[in-house]
Each structure stands twice: as C-alpha cells, then as structure tokens.
C-alpha cells in the first residue's frame, strides 16, 4: 500500500490508473453508462 501511495504522490492519478489497472476504469465506464441510460438529460 505504501508503494502505491508513494507512486500516486510522485506521478499523480496516471500512476493509480496504471497500478489499479482497467478495473477502475471499467467500473467508472459502466457506472457512467448506467447513469446515462437512466438520466433524462443524457438521452440522445
């Protein structure tokens, strides 16, 4: 955990995304997609 914190402090969010992998991004994408699907302002 300390290594992750140190990398995050040195390199910012990009390091966290690299270490955390695509899982966080996939979660964010799927959350965004479900929000878009359920929110009237995002309807095309």
UniProtKB/TrEMBL annotation:
Record keywords: Oxidoreductase
Highest taxon, organism lineage: Bacteria
Entry's EC annotation: 1.1.1.1
Enzyme class: oxidoreductase
MF annotations from Gene Ontology: alcohol dehydrogenase (NAD+) activity
Name of protein: Iron-containing alcohol dehydrogenase
Species for this entry: Peribacillus frigoritolerans
């Amino acid at each position: 955990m300390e290594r992750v914190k140190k990398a995050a402090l040195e390199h910012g969010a990009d390091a966290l995304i690299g270490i955390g992998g695509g899982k966080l991004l996939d979660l964010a994408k799927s959350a965004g997609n479900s929000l878009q699907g359920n929110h009237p302002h995002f309807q095309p």
